[in-house]
Every structure is written in structure tokens, then in C-alpha cells.
């Protein structure tokens, strides 16, 4: 079990014990690990079986009664498969839940395309600006982000990953500068687990590197304050997912934008997550090639 997933399970178990408003809805995934909590709280831990659409619908009903539901599965089942229920039973009803996914873009790549969901954050964007999206880059960021989410009634998506950075930054809901470049240096924004590859890729470059685990809402005020002429986005989901937000935020500022992330093309290949990271150019060497070419083109 990955460290982020373990942190989620431990924190969820504690929340169920501490807060009678917290509920949990599952579709078999992680049910065995959460069985002790289900035994203690049978009225607030519901496993609907392999029925992901029902799982989200039940969460909407629980939210209407005043409970704060946590909903959990692989991203491809939780978001892609149950998107209509997210749209209707949560978003359209004006109620919130905390949707917690594992699998991310291709953590489950060995299981094939059915377990890959690089487009999940883009789907939430299609619902408007009401959803908070958290993408932790370290296991120690998971518990505070989950606790923060359950303390509200807002709709929140928490995207867990097997990829992780070496250090946690729990307070990085706004852009946090981790490497300062010179005056008007290009700004490189790394989201979640893309921080360490980005730092390695930009070693020795005159760029400012900023990190966030909260791409929605994106810290556009921080973006404007830090950005020079060039902005590079490095995201662990579909490339360009945040491009429109950056473009709107800087509409009155001349700038060039490079959006890096998972490519739009279905590679139709198996392989482990590290293979997919490399194939999509999201390892340190691939990022360095892309960023270097972008910055060279600005000078030519």
C-alpha cells in the first residue's frame, strides 16, 4: 500500500471516531482496510459494492441530511465512471462531498487503460469554479488536507498518487517559492508530485520554481506576482488543464506559456508508472528538454 493511501485510511478512521458528522461511502475499494471503522460505525460507513455511480448518489443523499461524506475509489471509477452522478447528485444539488481518489493518471497502468485517469481534473473544471482540487505531493500533506476538507461543506476532490516528493509542504495551498530566480526570471509552477522532477530538471537554470498542492482554486494572485514573461506549468494530469486559468489571470500581461503534463494521445501501452512518466516526458530529463527548448525559443 502506498504511503498516501495509508495516510488517507488512518485519517479517515480517526475522523469517523472523532466527528459524528463524518460518513464514508465505498465501492469495495479499501473496504477491508476500513472494516474495523465500519464495525464501529455501521450507520456511517457504507459499502455499496462495485456500483460507483450509486456510491456517489448515496453520498449526495447523505450530504442532504447534513452529514459530511467521504467517497473513495480509483480515480477512473470515482470520476470518469461516475461523472454524471457527480454533476447531478452533488454539483447540481448544491451539496458537497470529499471525493478521494487513488490511481491518479497512471499509477494503475499495469491494469491497463481502465485504471488510468489523466483527465480527472479537467472533468471537475467542466463543472465550473465551485470545486476545490487538492493534489498532495507528499504523504504528510494528506492528513491536513483531508481534515481541512471535512471541516467544510464544500465540494472537494483529493487526488492521491504513488509519486511523492522528498519533502512535505502542507501550507502550499498558495504558490510557495522553493527556488528563486533573478529579476523577471521565468516562473515554473509544479503541482503536487511533480515538484521533485521539476527541481531536478531546472537545476542550474535561472528560473523561479513555485509549488502548490491546490490547483483549484489556483493562486492567481501569486502567479501574477511571481511571473515574468515566461510561465511553465508542470502538472501530473492532462497537459494544459490549467492553461485557461493562467491565460485569464495574465490576460493583460504579455507572456508565453508552456503547459506540460500527460499527453492527449492514448499511448496504448502497458508498463509501470515510471515508464509512463518517461513516455510522457514528465521525468527530470524529459522536463529539462522541454523547458530548455521553450526558454531557448524565447531568446531566438
What tags apply to this protein structure?
single chain, 300 residues, alpha/beta, Rossmann fold, 2 domains, six-stranded parallel β-sheet, five-stranded mixed β-sheet, 12 helices, 11 strands, 37% helix, globular
Folded structure, characterized:
Keywords: Transferase. Its EC number is 2.2.1.1. α1 (3-18) runs parallel beside α7 (142-150) and α8 packs across α12. The mean pLDDT is 96. The strands form 2 sheets. A 6-stranded parallel sheet has the order 2-1-3-4-6-5, sandwiched between helices. A 5-stranded mixed sheet has the order 7-9-8-10-11, sandwiched between helices. The N and C termini lie far apart (48 Å). It has helices at residues 3-18, 35-40, 52-64, 75-81, 83-92, 120-125, 142-150, 195-201, 220-226, 243-249, 273-279, 284-299, and strands spanning 22-26, 45-47, 68-74, 98-102, 132-134, 156-159, 176-179, 187-191, 208-212, 230-238, 256-262. β8 (187-191), α8 and β9 form a beta-alpha-beta unit. It has 2 domains: 3-159, Rossmann fold; 176-299, Rossmann fold. The chain is globular. The protein is 37% helix and 19% strand. It is built from 12 helices and 11 strands. It is α/β, with parallel strands linked by helices and 300 residues long.
